[in-house]
Amino acid sequence: MIAQVWKNQQLTIKTIEHLSMVFVALAIIIVIGVAIGIFLYNKKYLSNIVLNILNIIETIPELVLLVILMPFFGIGYKPTMIASILYSILPVARNTYVGLIQVDKQYLESARAMGLAEREILWKIRIPLALPMIAAGIRIAIVFVMGVITLGGLIAAGGLGGPIQTGIHLYDRDIILVTGLWIGILAVLLDSIGSFIEKVLNRKYGYD
Amino acid sequence: MTSSNRFFNKIQEIKIDNVTKKYGSITAVQKVSLDVQGGELLILLGPSGCGKTTLLRMINRLVEIDEGEILINEQNVQDFDPVLLRKNIGYVIQQIGLFPHMTVKENIGLVPKLDGWSEEKITKKVKELLQLVSLPPDEFINRRPKQLSGGQQQRIGLARAMVMNSPLLLMDEPFGALDPILRKQLQEEFIGLKEKLQRTIIFVTHDIEEAFRLGDRIAILKDGKLIQLATKNELLVNPASDFISDIVDSKQKFRHLDNLTVKDIMLPLEEKYIFQLSQTAESAIKKMKDAEIEFGVVLENQQYIGTIKLNQLYANPDKILSKLTAEVPVFKPDESVTVAMNIMKNANNFIGAVMESKPIGILLANELLTKLV
Fold first, then answer.
1. Coil, strand, or helix at residue B223?
2. Cα dist from B292 to B92, B273, B304, B327, whole Å
3. Is B31 exposed, middle or buried (0-12, 13-18, 19+ CB in 10 A)?
4. At how many degrees (to 10) do helices A77-101 and A11-42 cross?
5. Would the pTM of this model clear 0.90, i.e. be above it?
6. Residue B228 phi/psi, 5° resolution?
7. Residue B104: is its pLDDT beyond 70?
8. What percent of chain B has pLDDT over 70?
9. Whether residue B254 has pLDDT greater than 60
10. pLDDT higher than threshold 70 for residue B1
11. Is the pLDDT confidence value at B365 over 80?
């Protein structure tokens, strides 16, 4: 059953497609999310409003977000990627911002006292010490991105969401089960990789 | 640091003139004026909240002055760029603040690196400083802060503060978080270091004993005001107010001295301080690290042999303790403290052992002051 579904639904190629979408989306999310976090750290008065806007985006159900984007970006790859990115920037941006803000005062005081400029403190002290926190945000983003991209199958985005849709339309239990479980396994795998990276960072940059 | 960024090679004088700092309606420091002479160790002493730390932090502009001025070698600190000013002044705090994501070398070498020193020059300087604070460079240079005991961290903190060779050192209760015996040992080492380095040091503490032990002169603050600035003897003999005489307890200071015995003053010998003569130095080092101590008493068949110090063990990790044990004066518990102190002073030792049929305690010279004051 598994081999047949795998072959008929071309799951190897779909998996590659799916993962490449996930990684591209994540890369963009990390760049934008960390940049927003650092920007907000520099302009703290904007942090409330920006994080609230991101929060509002995140409260929109994934399906609705996809639908809202369709008039602007059509169907398929583009709106799915944009939706997954919009949806997952908040945890990365928020964790970056919080990680930078909450660095223990003793480190900041000794850095300042030894004559580091604020910019040097940001890059040499705050960002390294915020890395475990940022990694935790990225882990949340991984789960979100997996979800949105799978849902993108609904609007022909490619990846493993496609076979799921096929299975639903044909009411084919085998396809739904095999593909569904496979996506689940992939999500767990990605999350464990994220968790491993988080642990390594914690060991290197964490406080105790 | 390029030569144009070096503001002073030697401190002639620091003049604190009528300085005030307010936080809202609270006045943390109120019209304080005092002079620090080049080369001296000046203590700022007072209860918590008296403004001593605020005053210290105004010197390197971690706190900005509201009124008055601070002059270093007749130059107003307000005229310097604060970041460059701080590079010219060493600073040590109680929490130490070693960066957890950097090794010992990276911690000490951070500012030199930002200033563009070469890798070899940094390594050389770091090793030199580790040597100075009695940590074997090769063992410690690549460690991370969490692999260090409290005393070792504080030594690295001190090394880090000295890396730019600044002639002025500000210290804010640097030994405050250490256990009493370790604190005494570090104070002891620090006194030696101070003689060697010839720097001007301003040292904040609330510990009267530490103040008397380390300070050339002592400034006592209360409620943001300077009450008295004097040498220790002046404070004892001529306290400016009842507050001072309470602090130094000059009225009754040594009245009971003759009645005290060694037993009253000694610290009981805990298991963690006990080592066996047949042990290797290596195993002793490990035990000291685990117990976070740097000093121990060596026994053989329950009999007292002598004492060992961690930094001596480091120098000879392959030997057994019998080769490394030093003799210190031995006292009976009912001996007079005055006599014991005299013997220790003549032997130039700050530690003594207390014995009955077996060792029962450690006598520390300055514990006497703590108990009396």
1. coil
2. 21, 10, 22, 23
3. middle
4. 40
5. no
6. -160, 140
7. yes
8. 94
9. no
10. no
11. no
pLDDT grade for B256, boundaries at 50, 70 and 90: low
Interchain contact, A116 vs B83, CB within 8 Å = yes
CA distances from B152 to A118, B55, B96, B106, B178 (A): 28, 28, 11, 16, 10
Contact A107 B97 (CB under 8 A): yes
B94-123 mean pLDDT: 93
- Is the pLDDT assigned to residue B98 strictly greater than 70? yes
> If 0-12 CB within 10 Å is exposed, 13-18 middle and 19+ buried, where does residue B315 land?
exposed
Confidence of residue B315 (pLDDT cuts 50, 70, 90): confident
Residue A76 structure tokens: 């398929």
The yes/no answer on whether domain A2-205 falls in CATH 3.40.50.2300 is no
- Of B86, B97, B146, nearest to A106 by CB-CB distance is B97
Q: Which residues of A touch B95 (CB under 8 A)?
A: 106
Q: Which residue has the higher pLDDT, B2 or A123?
A: A123
> Across the interface, do B97 and A110 touch by the CB < 8 Å criterion?
yes
pLDDT for the residue B296: 86
Q: Are residues A154 and A167 in contact, defined by beta-carbon separation less than 8 angstroms?
A: no
Q: Where are the alpha helices (DSSP H) in chain B?
A: 52-59, 82-87, 104-108, 110-114, 119-132, 137-140, 150-161, 180-197, 208-214, 232-237, 242-248, 262-265, 281-291, 310-315, 337-347, 367-372
Helix (H) / strand (E) containing B221: strand B217-222
Q: What ipTM describes this predicted complex?
A: 0.81
**What are the tokens at A122?**
């940001």
Where do the domains of chain B lie, and which CATH numbers do they carry? Answer: 3-248 (3.40.50.300), 257-372 (3.10.580.10)
Contact A106 B111 (CB under 8 A): no
- Give φ, ψ of A146 to 5 degrees: -55, -45
The candidate with the shortest Cα–Cα distance to B215, out of B192, B232, B227, is B232
Mean pLDDT, chain B, rounded, equals 87
* Domain chopping of chain A, boundaries: 2-205
**Residue ranges of chain A with per-residue pLDDT less than 70:** 207-208
Query: Please, which residues bridge with residue B306 across strands?
Result: B298
Long-range contact list for B242-250, CB < 8 A, 24+ apart?
B244/B220, B247/B45, B247/B208, B247/B220, B248/B208, B248/B373, B249/B372, B249/B373
Closest C-alpha among B111, B237, B123 to residue A112: B111
For the stretch B9-32, pLDDT in tens is 889 999 999 999 999 888 999 999
Instruction: List the single residue in B83, B96, B146 with the smallest CB-CB distance to A117.
Output: B83
The two beta strands, B217-222 and B200-205, are unpaired
pLDDT number for residue B196: 85
Q: How far apart are CA B355 and CA B371, in angstroms?
A: 21
Question: Which residue, chain included where needed, has tokens 């880090």?
Answer: B160
B1–A contact, CB cutoff 8 A: no
Provide the 8-state DSSP code for B147.
G
Structure tokens at B208: 């009267």
Beta bridge partners of B69: B17
